[in-house]
Amino acid sequence: MRILSRQAWPFAVAAAAFALAVGLPAGDPDTWWHLASGRWMVEHRDVLRVDIFSSTATGEPYALGEWLGEVVLYLVFAAASWPGLLVLRAALVAVAAFFVTRLALRGAPPAVAVPVAAVALVLSKPVWTDRPQLFTLALFPVVLDLLLAARGGSRRALVAAVPLLFVWSDLHAGYALGVVLLWLFALDALLERRDAGAFLVAALAATLAVSADPGALPLARSVAHVAGATRGIVEESPVDVLTPFGALFALVLGVTLLSFLRGGGSLLAAIVLVPMLWLALSAQRYIPLFGFAAVPFISLPSDLAAGFSASSSTDRTPNAPGLLSLGGRREASSEADRLSGAAASRQSRSDDPVHPVREPRREAKPDPSRTTPRSRLVLAALVMWVAALLSIATIPTRPDVSAYPAAALDELRSTSGVLLNEYTWGGYLIWNAPTRPVFVDGRLFPYATDGVLDQYRTAIAVLPGWRATIRRWNVAQALLRPDRPLVQALRDDGWTTVAQGSGYVLLERPR
């Protein structure tokens, strides 16, 4: 109960996040091929290293460094079907929410920290999808919280970060962000001349551990994957600030910069946030992680912070929030000056017979019959968690397949030949029509070697050379959206409609 009392706000925010995340239906296009990969590895008791799902990249190296994440997804699905995946997703989002709130409470009182954490979580909602990326969403704030605790003197937190990064390296390739984060904290320790040896040893140990892991995506490739972007993929393109998501990112960035300017800035904030901002500006998939990284460094101007502190002093976390804000060094100095001044005052009063030093007054024992604000918050958090867990009974039991050609599956299973399919339908077909290898899907890497993705784009848009792509791969059928230019072009070349429905058309080459 004592732990719950100290972490009441994080528990409450985590409960709210769980309730929101568990009610969202499954349907992400990548979920399907992740499940298929996990199923193959469970059945063959081996790591899937080459492509086995496509007709265009069969045998190409296929290792995204998330084998354990895919196995976990499939095992949960095998045990509890789609509701199980939704609960897993909600649990990981709740972990992220818990630690993001802890991070926010390091820089501001609850009246400010909780709204800041809530905004950061809303910013992460686009990546609340059922794929291994969720493990990075959950573990990034955990590692950041451990490193901030280590910076405050906790050696156990620093030691715990190393095995956590090792496990993360098998769950998702985003582990590179955690390793880089550890090196950034080591750099800060070097520049600040404070316990740099421990951070350097931990950073080196983590780097060696993940490099020795045969199942992980090599660190260099993982860093290149994180820093690079794939042309034409929405989540890896820069954000449009005119969209709601982009506008919210602009708001978070503006508040972070304002806090930085008003607080005077800190070396640690610059070391951590500058590279995270670069990633967020280059690819919108990293915007949620920038939001998470910013929350511990968002603080109030001193005049406003004093008012909030007075009104919510009993709700502060044990970690001194001001010491890790963007103006952390200045606030730490003023805190030290205050303590030294108080000590000097006590010493002078000990020699003054008019103002003798009095023994500190003993605190009265709390009255069990009275309910404190903290106990009310704990009770509210428990009620929220009970309600969140009860909501599992009402969650969707099937995925949302409205965006997929579900009605074409029977026809696909009864025919054969090379199938040209929509990119976003590839994962769905891998899972639901495994006898028909796909042309492309969301895995990207197998299709980069032979330029398959570029050829697909050429054919779909009927660009010069599109017929060469059809001939090269001996395409027998095309499953496309009706509004694709290729649909009319194929019909002009004599292709016939085998099946057609809402949002799809299946064409067959003339015999």
Can you describe what's shown?
This protein is mainly alpha-helical. The chain has 2 domains: 2-302, no CATH class; 406-508, no CATH class. Helix content is 59%, strand content 4%. The protein is built from 21 helices and 4 strands. It has a 4-stranded mixed β-sheet with strand order 1-2-4-3, covered by helices on one side. A hairpin with a 2-residue loop joins strand 3 (496-501) and strand 4 (504-508). Helix 7 (155-171) packs parallel to helix 9 (196-211), helix 8 packs antiparallel against helix 9 (196-211) and helix 19 packs across helix 20. The protein is globular, with a radius of gyration of 27 Å. The model is unreliable at 301-358 (pLDDT under 50).
What level of helicity do the residues show?
A: 55-70%
Structural class: mainly alpha
How is the quaternary structure best described? single chain
Which parts are unreliable, with pLDDT below 50 for 5 consecutive residues or more?
301-358
- In whole angstroms, the N-to-C terminal distance is 73 Å
Helical segment count:
21
Secondary-structure element series:
HHHHHHHHHHHHHHHHHEHHHEHEE
For the secondary structure, the number of strands is 4
Mean pLDDT value: 84
Biggest pleated sheet: 4 strands, mixed
Number of domains: 2
Which word captures the global form?
globular
**How large is the share of residues in beta strands?**
under 5%
Using only CA atoms, what is the Rg? 27 Å
Strand order of the largest sheet: 1-2-4-3
